[in-house]
Amino acid sequence: MRVRVAILGCGNRGADVYARLLAAGGAQVAWLVDPRPARLAEVAARHGLGPEACLTHWEEFFALGRVADAVVVATPDDEHVEPCVRALALGYDVLLEKPICLEEAELGRLLAAEAASAGRVTVCHVLRATPFFRAVAAGLRSGRLGRLVGISLAENVAWWHYAHSYVRGNWRASPPAAPFLLAKSSHDLDLLRAWAGSEPQRVSSAGDLVHFGGSLRKLLPSAK
Asked: Residues 74-100: pLDDT tens digits?
């Protein structure tokens, strides 16, 4: 029997990436949730789903009980924790888009929900699974480069990506979106921990706002 998956959030990550990959791997995309009727219809057509399998809010989906085997949570950043907790309460395994949450207290709530559930959460820190970064990890593990004593990693965000997503796009303000550092560097932190093979002993951060100052200062009053 094919694994039945519900996609909560039919944006690029939910519908164009995870739903396509899951379907290509043999899973059945059985439910779609998104507030945009046109987008729901577009994605439903890809997977041969009728209107009865398309819902506009994740609360409608969970009200049905357990009707699938797993759930992909690819909702906006500030709506990751609640649907994930609801999914765990029904025993679903969850593929959770990063970032996990926007507040540390929410992380504790999610961890408690997972501990009490038969389901498990996998966070979409997908860079460690890409060929380039897998090759880096293999080189480190092999010992060919010697003993690991330090890692230098730069998050080079292209100017067009920054302008499109973080100045004009959906991630231009937090909340509702994750802060820029969390949105981008959650990948870096995951890679660093995976490569080092241990937890950090100390973390520090420094930064400043030197570009796009006028528009961002209105959105981020605490920014310098």
From this structure: 999 999 999 999 999 999 999 999 999
Same domain, 81 and 14: yes
> What is the C-alpha to C-alpha distance for residues 8 and 15, in angstroms, rounded to an integer?
9
Same domain, 157 and 110: no
Return the residue matching tokens 């997908």. Answer: 126
One-letter amino acid of 126: V
Total domains present in the chain: 2
Range of the domain at 63: 4-124
For 32-42, how does the pLDDT look when each residue is reduced to its tens digit (9 = 90+)? Answer: 999 999 999 99
Segment 123-140, tens digit of pLDDT: 999 888 899 999 999 999
Residue 32, classed as helix, strand or coil, is: strand
Instruction: State the maximum Cα–Cα separation within the chain, in Å, rounded to a whole number.
Output: 57
Asked if residue 194 has pLDDT above 80, the reply is yes
Provide the edge-to-edge strand list for the sheet that holds 93-96: 54-55, 28-33, 4-8, 70-73, 93-96, 121-123
Model confidence at 53: pLDDT above 50: yes
CATH of residue 42's domain is 3.40.50.720
